Amino acid sequence: MTKGCIQEEYINAKLEREKKVSVYIGNGVAIPHGIGGSEKYILKSGISFLQIPKGISFGEGKTAYLVIGIAGIEDEHLDILAKIAVACSDINKVKCLRNASLKEKIKEILEI
């Protein structure tokens, strides 16, 4: 919200998605994003990137150390989601992301 990408209602839509289907994708990564119909709360495309060294439980033994929230307008949503999912399917890239301290390095790894 602080970057002006979303309205507060989009956060609630992300929480609703997690109640229906986990946003945990494996390799210690979760990608929260809204449910259908929530795109009206997106002002512009963007991502939020959180490194959680101790991890956060997504139940059933699934722990996320990276939480990458996305908000995309129209087809950008799927493009952003696909790029992040592909990058995070590579455990070596995930390890780099967990330790990255520069925004530019994170963007380079995620190819966004």
TrEMBL record:
GO terms for molecular function: kinase activity; protein-phosphocysteine-sugar phosphotransferase activity. The keyword Transferase applies. Keywords: Kinase, Phosphoprotein, Phosphotransferase system, Sugar transport, Transferase, Transport. GO terms for biological process: phosphoenolpyruvate-dependent sugar phosphotransferase system. GO terms for cellular component: plasma membrane. Residues 1-112 form the PTS EIIA type-2 domain. InterPro entries: PTrfase/Anion_transptr, PTS_EIIA_type-2_dom, Sugar_PTS. The keyword Amino-acid biosynthesis does not apply. It holds the Pfam family PTS_EIIA_2. SUPFAM superfamilies: Phoshotransferase/anion transport protein. CDD domains: PTS_IIA_fru (cd00211). Gene3D superfamilies: Mannitol-specific EII, Chain A. It comes from the Bacteria. The phosphoenolpyruvate-dependent sugar phosphotransferase system (sugar PTS), a major carbohydrate active transport system, catalyzes the phosphorylation of incoming sugar substrates concomitantly with their translocation across the cell membrane. The enzyme II CmtAB PTS system is involved in D-mannitol transport. This is Mannitol-specific phosphotransferase enzyme IIA component. It comes from Candidatus Anaerostipes avistercoris.
